[in-house]
Design brief:
9 helices; 204 residues; mainly alpha
């Protein structure tokens, strides 16, 4: 169970602070209407990811064990790539001038996330294979993985919104620190998934 909690929570933490369409939307909404009115948008992943997760799990369930292990290893490689991207971003100056036109409702926030490729990649290459592995061990492990992921994701997005409104998101140094933490977490998770995926593949 602890492995699933670490994977779900760690992946969610890293995903929530990576620059992306949803984070850009949240920042633009805070700038437009303030953090209190933007706060409900942190629930967008709960509304948008259900159909994505269902479709991915149904498709993954039809794959052989070997194909699932390959996908798990591919998920590790994807996270290592994200870690490298976060590390490169950590080296760059923080751009605080970028402006993005903001949707104005929670429905539009959900639409932003539906059109974002990251949830699809995350479920197809990371959460989906991890969920199936955990389910085979015990259903409680799989549930723990999902609860850890979404509780951490929603909590971190809520914190992101509040900090953006109250402290201009911690300033450039705070952003750099979070990017550094994210890079380390993604590297650890990617290495774990890659090693376990290849290990399970060799054991088949």
């Amino acid at each position: 169970m602890m492995q699933q909690l670490f994977l779900g929570g760690g992946f969610a933490f890293a995903a929530s602070i990576q620059p992306g369409p949803l984070q850009a939307f949240l920042l633009s909404r805070v700038a437009a209407v303030g953090w209190k009115r933007t706060l409900p948008a942190c629930l967008a992943p709960l509304l948008s990811d259900g159909p994505i997760a269902l479709i991915v799990l149904l498709l993954l369930g039809q794959l052989s064990a070997t194909a699932q292990h390959l996908l798990k290893a591919a998920g590790g490689i994807l996270l290592l790539y994200f870690a490298w991207s976060a590390f490169r971003q950590w080296h760059r100056p923080i751009d605080r001038t970028a402006q993005i036109t903001a949707p104005q409702t929670l429905f539009q926030a959900v639409l932003v996330n539906v059109l974002n490729p990251n949830p699809y990649l995350g479920w197809a290459l990371v959460l989906g294979p991890a969920f199936l592995d955990a389910w085979r061990q015990h259903p409680a492990n799989a549930i723990g993985l999902i609860v850890a992921f979404y509780s951490t994701l929603v909590g971190m997005l809520a914190l992101f919104i509040v900090l953006a409104g109250l402290a201009r998101f911690l300033g450039p140094q705070g952003q750099r620190a979070l990017l550094g933490i994210s890079a380390i977490l993604l590297a650890l998770l990617g290495t774990y998934l890659l090693i376990t995926g290849l290990k399970n593949l060799s054991a088949d």
